[in-house]
Amino acid sequence: MTLVQLQTRSVSDRPVHSTVVDAMDAAGPQVWYDMTVEVALSVMAAARTEHLVVCDEDGLCVGLVTEARLTAVRDSSGYTDRIRLGDLTDGSGPFASPWATREEAEDTLPFGRIGPVPVVDEHGNALGVLALSR
């Protein structure tokens, strides 16, 4: 019989706060900000996703749109086929830093904001998406 010695670890040995990188999902489809709402909804359906990361002409993340938001825009009385994703995202975020803790990322959100948030590096490149809830 072979004896195995078990070594116990205290709770304090485990990381208390994981970073956003530990909790984020892949960025998923990234689309250009000049895409129309109808085309974006088609891309979402084909990709079987509920959000798209929106990028500018340099490939930098300017925001994220959800299927729910695009559907609401399309069904609104002011909708025209000239509305582009860039009209719905202004580049001001919210964005999460990959080095922040999940708690820090949630604290930076406007009150009541839930749902996916793009995770971007210091250059504005989309690294992933963090699903947040409050």
Automatic annotation (TrEMBL):
Q: Where is the signal peptide?
A: none
Superkingdom of the source?
Answer: Bacteria
Q: Where is the CBS domain?
A: 24-82
Q: Does the keyword Repeat apply?
A: no
The record, for InterPro entries, names: CBS_dom, CBS_dom_sf
PROSITE patterns under this entry? CBS (PS51371)
| Family matches, as Pfam families | CBS (PF00571)
Against SUPFAM superfamilies, the record matches this protein to: CBS-domain pair (SSF54631)
Keyword terms, alphabetized:
CBS domain
* Name of the protein in its database record: CBS domain-containing protein
